[in-house]
Amino acid sequence: MKECDLLESLWTCFIFGMSRFTPLKGQGLLFAVLFVLGYVADPFRDLFEATFRELNARSNSVDPSQPTHIELNQRLPLGAVGDAILAKSPQYLIVGVPKAGTSVLYFGLCGVHPNITCASFVKEPFYLTGIDAQALVAHVNATAIASFHRRYIERCFNVSLLRPSVITSEASTSYFHSPLAADVIDLLLNKDLKLIVSFREPVSRAYSWYQHQLRKGDAPPTFRDAVEAEVHIVVDCAGSQLHNALNEQGSVDEIDSIVQCIDRAKERHYQSTGRRFKNYVFDSLYVGRYLAWKKRFGDRLHVVLYDEIRDDPQSAIDAAVRFLGLPDVTWNTDSIRVTRHEFQQGSRYEELPEDDEVAGALKELFAPYNRLLAMHLGRDIPWVKDL
Fold first, then answer.
1. For residue 289, what are the contacts with CB-CB under 8 A and spacing of at least 6?
2. Nearest to 293 by CA among 205, 186, 193
3. How many CA atoms lie less than 13 Å away from 142 in the CB half-sphere?
4. Where are the beta strands (DSSP E) in the chain?
5. Residues linked to residue 195 through DSSP beta bridges, in sequence order
6. In angstroms, rounded to a whole number, what is the distance separating the alpha carbons of residues 212 and 198?
7. Surface-to-core class of residue 27, CB atoms within 10 Å of its CB (0-12 exposed, 13-18 middle, 19+ buried)
8. Is the CB of residue 339 less than 8 Å from the CB of residue 317?
9. With contact defined as beta carbons under 8 Å apart, do 148 and 132 qualify?
């Protein structure tokens, strides 16, 4: 999070601090005070940065359309920012996947590089998979596109931080597995927009996501119960098509047909039960969605591996900076410490034991999809064996 531009008032800084964490009441006031102090005095900036990250972690459920955000932006009319800046915002998106180090990438990039700002009110607004996005894709026209983009910026970004010298993003992890989000990005947003996705070993990602849901009280008592229905659907949809995809060196059509079959099964389940799957297994199948995004966006898509973020976050973020076309940045001790802290905060769940029966079955299920992913990425993946 960067300090306000010199031309902005301390009052705007204070209003932003309050609006950013209004649901947290007294904590929002603390943030607002630190925001102003960080603007006028260097010694307070470290404390401000730490407080920002802590409160942001607690406020990810904040509704991006709440009036306080819009009121803030109304104090600084969008027209005052400049049409060229608005039209190109955001300049990149981190599109997924859940529990794969996206927080480290998001906060690491805007916390380390002077030309990147965390202008998004929350890390994950999920706006491009929301009701507005659904309505827009159903009725695409020039007026609707302009109106949608304006609402997206107004509701999800602090426009006071948008300037010619910086770029910004958000990191809604649902986007990668959402055809709707891909449609919106492809059809409606900045054609120079760049995309980053992070992949994690599928079993550990699924188990981490399960623990996340369990902690919220929204998961079955056992991991086996959580994944069983999804496993059956994957097996049923694969059939001979998976075998053919492997034999044909990763046939895109065969892989896509499996993805489409899974999507249809998910929709049937929702129509009959009124409940969505939690996607423990489905969101750990990367290759089908990767091929769809790659076909649409080509070199505008950058893949990061969770292992790289875990083992050397500095190098992973440096690679992302180069992908974004920005100059290299000199890291300092504080930047490295904060980045590692973000990783530790996001990795607080236990790993599934290697000898766990469910883990073994899932590894077998994921193995051919992992091999196909490595084949299409054209690179080694630490958790893909026997290529």
1. 176, 177, 259
2. 186
3. 0
4. 92-96, 116-117, 167-168, 194-199, 301-305
5. 93, 301
6. 18
7. middle
8. yes
9. yes
β pairing state of 194-199 and 92-96: parallel
- Which residue bears the tokens 């055809």? 179
Q: Which two tokens stand for residue 173?
A: 């992890």
SS3 197: strand
What is the four-CA torsion angle of 99, 102, 104, 105, rounded to 10 degrees? 160
- State pLDDT tens for residues 40-93: 444 444 444 444 444 444 344 444 444 445 555 555 555 556 677 888 899 999
DSSP string, 293-307: HHHHHGGGEEEEEHH
Query: What is the rounded CA–CA span in Å between residue 195 and residue 128?
Result: 14
| Lowest-pLDDT choice from 267-271, 276-280, 332-336 | 332-336
- Structural contact between residues 95 and 286, judged by C-beta atoms closer than 8 angstroms: no
CA-closest candidate to residue 309, choices 200, 210, 211, 212: 200
Distance separating alpha carbons of residues 82 and 349, to the nearest angstrom: 44
Tokens of 139: 């009725």
From CA 153, how far away is CA 145, in angstroms rounded?
A: 12
Report pLDDT for 88: 87
pLDDT tens, position by position, 117-150? 999 999 999 999 998 899 888 888 888 888 899 8
Phi, psi of 312 (to 5 degrees): -155, 75
Query: Which helix (H) or strand (E) element contains residue 266?
Result: helix 252-273
The radius of gyration computed from the CA coordinates of the chain, to the nearest angstrom, equals 21
At 328, list the tokens. Answer: 């290299």
Here the tokens at position 147 are 């109106």
According to DSSP, residue 44 is labeled G
Rounded-to-integer distance, Cα 16 and Cα 323, Å:
30
Measured CA to CA in angstroms, residue 156 lies from 40, 83, 308 at distances of 26, 17, 29
Average pLDDT, the chain: 79
Residue 172 to residues 26, 92, 125, 330: CA-CA distances in angstroms? 27, 12, 6, 28
Amino acid at 256: D
